[in-house]
Amino acid sequence: MGVSRRGFTAASAAGGVLAASGLMRVSDAIAQGITPRRGGTLTTMLTPEPPILQIGVNNQGPTLIAASKIFQGLVKFSPTLEPLPELAQSWTISPDGKVYTFKLQPNVKFHDGTPMTADDVVFSVTKFHFELAPRARAIFSMIESAAAPDPHTVVFTLKQAFEPFLLMFDVTACAIVSKAAFDGRDYRQAPSVQHPIGTGPFRFAEWQRGNFIRLERFADYWKPNQPYLDAIIFRIVPDSQSRRLAMETGQTVLAHSNDIEPFDVPTLQAIPNLAVETKGWEYFSPLAWMEINHRAAPLNDVRVRRAISQAIDRSFITQRLWFGINKPATSPVASTTRFHDPAVKLPPYDPRAAMQLLDAAGLRPNAQGVRASIKHLVLPYGEVWARLGEYLRQSMRAVGIDLVLEATDAGSWARRIGAWEYETSINFVYQFGDPTLGVERTYVSSNIQKVTFTNTGGYANPKVDELFATARTSAAPAARAAAFSEVQKLLVDDVAQVWLMEMSFPTIYDRKLHNVITGGTGVNASFDDMFLAS
Amino acid sequence: MDPSRLPAFLLRRGIKAAIVILAIIVSNFFLIHAAPGDPASVMAGQSGAADERYLAQLRTQFGLDKPLLEQLWIYVRGMLALDLGYSHRQQMGVAALIWQRLPPTLLLTGVAFALAISGGVTLGALAARRVGTWADSVITVIALTFYATPIFWVGLMLVLLFSVVLGWLPSFGMNSVGADLHGIAAVLDVGRHLILPALTLGLFYVAVYARLTRATMLEVADQDFVKTARAKGVPEGRILRRHVLRNALLPVITLAGIQAGQLIGGSILVETVFAWPGIGRLAFEALLARDYPVLLGVFFCTSAMVVIFNLFTDLLYAMVDPRVEVQG
């Protein structure tokens, strides 16, 4: 018997290949003169898996992304949040700002073959979303009457002028559903909840839970020759490293939202056939802040809040934790929103000033150098948020505040924020393109409720209440802008929350894919113009 | 074992099992409700906007507005009628949800289990037979390596090698979606997807069984009846199979029985890394979403499986080793 020698080859990770070729170049099909190609399947991902795909019954982020291909709204938004025609061909607004008249596209069919008419629109607005969705309910309660004078005309008369009204009519806020499928039923348990029926370019085909959701081309879509793709497949991949590998190996060609952890973005950016885009979140513009419970001492002292704010290096957070995907916040109103005041500035990063403020507030360091101990409920939304918690602990320690991190899961976090059982935490909230829709709720005293995403911090300032009310009821944009400018200054002076950053999410896609991000809601578009170049 | 005693044995064990499962259901119910947060607050947190009316609507619909004991009674009453309940979050019956996710898990864990037992016992026997030689050392070192390596790391390394570097196998999922495969092609497709997760899950247990088999075989090999057999001139191969291995199998069966009971729970880690649509992930996601009926349903299935496999293991003992008596 001879001795056989075996050579062991170590499989190295070939890590050196990832050279830095990090230039972003958005492929713009029109500029390159590429004509759209019919056919092909888009394979992408969805994280986490949504419980159901019926907008209204469930309005989670992943639900909206998948269902925005199945359903449509009356309008969609440009990157600067101008409303553009979708199911509404055109619209007029009366001079007093109270009457909105929408002309609907003719020849729009639901996936079950029935025509979409003005009745469906009235039902969707005044019944379906009004009943199901808190956000829609708050706005649509201002509608005094809704009428359908003919099958292609809808008239909404408001009780008072409401300038941001049109911002409530895209698919994510008010998807048009079939009246026949829901009227007279329990909306949440209607059969079409499991098999959604919309007017969108793709119809629901198959859902193997935990595995994938498949949508297929709707042949009777109202735009001729569209959509270009034959099908969209959303794979459910729960592990972020597996998702990164799926993009590296080309098993999926589009990653979006939370799919890829920020620290993995530079790796994917270095792959030549992948493009990275951070646009497409203008409508939502999540603004992240360190959530302050104003009831908990010493956080009820504005000097302590300002000290906390000045102890945080926001550019470290956005550059080192989010790798440039996010921008430092400068105001309670995101810069993508039209009433953002660029003159408003947060006090600068200055640990020394922070310590002077803490001294002035009477918080002297003890023998261990600790001035105060504050609890911090870490946001349980993934690793990068845990890292943010660790960074905050370090930066608070540098000015003598002992930040005690508390770990939790999503269910406990939502309950504790809703029940005011926290001292500090992290929160991020969508802005929805207008401060009245997305900002007001966090700061007005009338919205101090034991419910998540209300004014859970308990901040109250009568002047702020008054300014938000003025902005809400004014029909003139100039008057609204003036009120919002003043309210931004007041909120910054009061350090109502410790704003950290304007968030975006990376959309990463194969360069064969065209028209990925075309508007202010990004991957929540219908994808009827998306195509795969050969 | 006396076959005439079997029915009485099964009856006694069946009654015990029913009581155990009922106790598990009740304690699970209280355990789950002790976790902070409820499905309504989770959904409010996820949808980014909420008001009091929304929360109240959801709680009424989910039946959470009733007193806890009444909720328990409704649940137990349903379970006695073999109704696993309804997930209001997913608007589907729990039985249907579990039924969708059970076959992939059984496939994955079943294959991994078969691989672990056959590979582990073979390697262990081989090592014991060649004890002290280079073959024994190689097997022991490999077994120890897989035993000591975290399971997700093995998975990621396998993916890196076979999916990223070599490009031979898919890195996640259970099938090629949209490829429209039928018959044997569809089976092969699932097989290709199955290799990496089954290997990852199986390698750990291969190591466990190999080490256990080797150790017990060496222990048995020193005993007097083996020496007697050898003195009688029984061939070495026959001694190993009939005298050593058969006696060394009892601990292996014990371990296999415990592992088989856990099969249905799957491996959340492997299912997560490989995006395998199994029941372990269903349970984990239900926990995060506080989807009580789904979670209780999965717990019920896993506990029933453990009870059944314990019974099965006891019967198997008696078959392998006639000295073992089954007792109720």
TrEMBL record, chain A:
It holds the Pfam family SBP_bac_5. InterPro entries: Peptide/Ni-bd, SBP_5, SBP_5_dom, TAT_signal. It comes from Humitalea rosea. GO terms for cellular component: ATP-binding cassette (ABC) transporter complex; outer membrane-bounded periplasmic space. The keyword Signal applies. GO terms for molecular function: peptide transmembrane transporter activity. It is found in: Periplasm. Keywords: Signal. This is Peptide/nickel transport system substrate-binding protein. Residues 83-425 form the Solute-binding protein family domain. It comes from the Bacteria. Belongs to the bacterial solute-binding protein 5 family. The keyword Ubl conjugation does not apply. GO terms for biological process: peptide transport. PROSITE patterns: TAT.
UniProtKB/TrEMBL annotation, chain B:
The keyword Membrane applies. Residues 102-317 form the ABC transmembrane type-1 domain. It is found in: Cell membrane. It is a multi-pass membrane protein. CDD domains: TM_PBP2. The keyword Cell membrane applies. One of its GO terms (cellular component) is plasma membrane. Pfam families: BPD_transp_1, BPD_transp_1_N. PROSITE patterns: ABC_TM1 (PS50928). The chain crosses the membrane at residues 15-35, 106-126, 138-170, 190-210, 248-274, 294-313. Keywords: Cell membrane, Membrane, Transmembrane, Transmembrane helix, Transport. InterPro entries: BPD_transp_1_N (IPR045621), MetI-like (IPR000515), MetI-like_sf (IPR035906). Its main location: membrane. One of its GO terms (biological process) is transmembrane transport. Belongs to the binding-protein-dependent transport system permease family. This is Peptide/nickel transport system permease protein. The lineage of its organism: Bacteria, Pseudomonadati, Pseudomonadota, Alphaproteobacteria, Acetobacterales.
